[in-house]
Amino acid sequence: MTDYGHELRFGTFLPAEAATAGETVRLAVLTEELGLDLASVQDHPYQARFLDAWTLLSVIAAQTSTLSVFPNVANLPLRPPAVLARAAASLDVLTGGRVELGLGAGAYWDAIAGMGGDVLTPGASVEALEEAVQVIRALWSTERSARVDGTHYRLRGAHPGPPAAHPIGIWIGALKPRMLRLVGRVADGWLPSAPYVPPPQLADSNRHIDEAARAAGRDPGDVRRLYNVVPGQAPLSGPPKLWASQLADLVLNEGMSTFILMVQAGGDSDLRRFALDVAPQVRELVSAARSGTATEPAPPPAAVPVPAGAERRAVTVWDESRRPTGPAADPAAPLTAAQRASGQHLVDVHNHLRQELEQLRDLVEQVAAGAVDLGDARSMINTMTMRQNAWTLGTYCESYCRVVTTHHTIEDVNLFPRLRAADPRLVPVVDRLEAEHHVIAEVLERVDAALVAMVSHPDGITAVREAVALLTDTLLSHLAYEERELVEPLGRLRIL
Hints:
There is one protein chain. The relative contact order is 0.09. The protein has helices at residues 21-33, 53-63, 81-95, 109-114, 122-139, 177-186, 202-215, 240-254, 268-291, 337-368, 377-382, 393-422, 427-456, 460-493, and strands spanning 9-14, 38-41, 68-71, 74-75, 101-104, 146-149, 154-158, 170-172, 189-190, 224-229, 258-262. The protein is α/β, with parallel strands linked by helices and 496 residues long.
């Protein structure tokens, strides 16, 4: 478990296209109105469709009063660091301390060359970035003159200033080990994007940063961990409650503490959901875990929950009698409130899956009874918490299946290896749970197949009902087993 204890911050990554400039400024103002902390834009000076990043950030800052702004990330090969330092400090003065500096080594080298920039090898680009940080910090210092004798950048007695209104953070976008080690040595923050560094890769990347920080005599906690995230992609998969759970996991397990939502023009619904539903839940979950005041989780189901008015079918996809059992809880060592919060988190995620499954079952029954046809189902699904872009029975079923699969993938890649390592007595249980995930994936495929068949067969709803019934039996049985075996170990071992 790695939680560096940083204050949580939330913000947006806004479009930079000149054609939608007014929309970008409007989204920035909305970002502030919704109570978020930061707004950022990408910096690609060679892209003719994009506005200049610093000009756009200046307008955003002028239209807001509390929002911090930063380039995500500044293109160093086309931004001389000495000028960049003065530009950032100047805007920080004008905004009363609302500027941070995202910084990158550069990419798209042919385009950079087209703008007159130097093309560097990967190794040289890392060296140049480190020298640039020295130049920027020297010009933000209180010394009378600044000198940096670098290969790529030099200062020869330049006068530092103007002084910034607050200590500006240098947040570096980095992917590979050498750049990550640079972050650990010199940066105030690490700024990756989820599409390039998905959640399962965060632990290894953080390890490089932490090791380099310690080797440089720094506390790893001095490096803030930021994360650009995309709606609909991990860790923002499924409904808002699951978004919040996944982001809280990243705070408590991976040390991430600032989440920047990538917003497209017209993306008000994603932005509002992120600001009004997700961010408050993340703050609440993290605060409870950090303070040890989380409420005690409800006891896991003693038996497989059965939807009201339905009898359970015989599960034929596995033999439940052969499920292994983990170590019994020690009655002499009851869990603390903070420990119980880990188990509650698992139950909360499972309860959401149960709720959505019940909604899915109900909708299928209404369609089967002729009370709702596929067209009418659109408005009903639009009121559910799990909303997608296309409102049909088929896309809703597919959305639910995708959420279940995402949840299981997170467990397989992240949670289960930790449990195996933390308590070898849990290995048989974890192995069985992982095997059941593969079985559930096959059951989900049956739902997909039944939906496809329903399009061309008038009686296809029968197959859909059968597939969803099998999914109900299988998934509810699995969730109950997982809670029975993992709620106590998750608290005892503090894995979540």
